[in-house]
Amino acid sequence: MTEEQQRQSVIDEALTWQNTPHHNGAHIKGAGVDCGWLPIMVYSAVGLMPKVEPGRYPPDFMMHRGEEWYKSIADKYGHRLPAGQLPKKGDFALYKFGRIYSHGAIVMDWPRIIHSYVGQGVIQALGDQGQLEGRDVIFYTLWGD
Predict the structure, then answer these.
(1) Residue 126 φ/ψ region, left for φ over 0, alpha for ψ in the -120 to 50 degree band, beta for the rest
(2) Tens digits of residue pLDDT in 61-70
(3) Predicted TM-score (pTM) of this structure
């Protein structure tokens, strides 16, 4: 499979999660998923990373912790894009909410993303508008060195 086919498979798999309700700590398609589990389930389903267990976390973990556990998972399985480099289809965006980087999204065609958001579930959105506008964001790719 070419890189372009792999990238498309990420988008295709992410779209199968669309309209799944947001539920903290869940990872069942159609029943509930949060912004941490969605990328894990998508990238593992297409074979780009193992299905890792992030552990239990409260819905407001980003307000009380300084530990960058979500970022540490992204650092382990992805390659951070240099500042200023725009992400490609299938790449990963990690946003800072509260004290730490705590909200993940899959890039469809930047700035279009797909993510699980509180009160909205898995939706497509613009990654530089609304609740995400002006937030610090780190982009990762699962391709390359």
Answers:
(1) beta
(2) 555 566 788 8
(3) 0.93
